[in-house]
Amino acid sequence: MKNGAHWPKASPQSSMRLDDLASGLKAEKRKMFGYPVYFVNGNMFAGVFADSIFLRLPAGEREGLMAAKKATPFEPVEGRVMKEYVVLDERTMAEDEAADLFRVGHAYASKLKKK
Q1: Percent of the chain at pLDDT above 70?
Q2: CATH code at 105?
């Protein structure tokens, strides 16, 4: 996305799925750049970007998902990859595996330095 370009709106389906996946986790829901996101101890661990859900995960989980082609690096602006974050593909996002990944992401962010 070029400077000055508008961000695409969050899809209602992705927003609802994000809320579903984050339910039961001790997390704070906020908005960032107009998108719903979840934080734990001041650290963002999951959110929506357009029609995608992104998730902060430890290196081994990220690499495994990308090798299995279940996720891609999160790059909200072309050329600016957010390290530690991946975008789950639609199939993974819809499966039960996504709930497990959210718990892993939440646990990982919980161990980071509190902000």
Answers
A1: 95
A2: 3.30.1460
